Amino acid sequence: MSKLLVIYLGSKGGGVLDSFELVRNFNNQHNNSIELSVLISENNPLKEEYRKLNLKNIIVLPTHSRSAIDLALQTIFFKRIKKILNAIQVLNPEKVLLTMDHPWLFFIVKNIRKKLKNTKIFYIKHNPPGFESFSRRFFDFFVNKLSEYLLKKADFVFTFSEHVRTETLKRYRVPEEKIVAFKLPAYRILCPKFLYKNNELREKLNILFFGRILGYKGIDVLVEAYALLKSEGLPVSLTIAGEGKIEKETLKKIKTLKIHLLNRWIPDEELCELLSRTDLVILPYTSASQSGPASIATGLGIPILATRVGGLQEQVLDNINGILVEPGNPYSIAQAIRYLLKNPEKLIDLRKGAQKLREKELSWEHVAKNIMEIILYEKTS
Questions:
Q1: Residue 200: pLDDT above 90?
Q2: Which end of the chain is less crowded, N or C, counting CB atoms within 10 A of the terminal residue's CB?
Q3: CA neighbours within 13 Å on the CB side: how many for 289?
């Protein structure tokens, strides 16, 4: 029986959901063929859900707060990192799956390569080289350097879009047979009480943008599109929910247009409440690897309006679970929304399309099964 350790040290965002969905499905599908262990942070909001899975080992260790200063201090003092390294050494896994980038993975991988030389490392790379993960170039530089290091040291790499795989192969000398792409599946664990009525139509089209606000997210273009719609007196409302920097001119327009703005981190309970009132999730990105908000929307059966960029067009299938438009163009966004207002039955079709995708092509069961087959295959390669 192969010993697999899944490591995720984060505490928020899509990584929380990705990691749990993989572990849950690994456990459901292969509990007779693997000895599955998990190492997570005590700050992980799903740690109690992990405990319900009855895994062989669940290691919950202190890491750091969301503060960059605390992360730096805990890294310098090294005490908590050392506990993590010791726990991995005691487990002595044959395989290790790293589900999301984290600064401490540098020390973890270095230690595995030094002391557990027969252990194979599997790494999920989420973003293409040079991608903007934070609003500060300083952090982005180190995130990309860490990713480059993990690519070199991993035995096998997974991505959640063909776009990320292609861009990674262009930039780095990774053998093509050692990196495989899957579509990011639809999240089903978020909002368990969510109930969406397929045939329900409201008098006003409620549009929601949610997620971290970064330069490539196209907030300025979205606001311009909304201004066009409001100038025509169309029955639409827009909520922008997420933390991040917004340019002063765009903020001024948001206030003038009376757009509902929640410029902060949105906890899951509040996000689920927002989603329950949403008819259309909008993703006006100018570039993309893949999108957690797209997976959340599809998992809940909410139609998506997105731009035709990067891995986003692998998750949002035009006229199936959403509508795709050209990036950077407020007129194309406004036109698509006008179409939905004139053809409300299209929203019903898109809801049904999203529900079909989440059951098959974009299901975690499907992706976890294929990832595990590769992990098990690597045992004999």
A1: no
A2: C
A3: 21
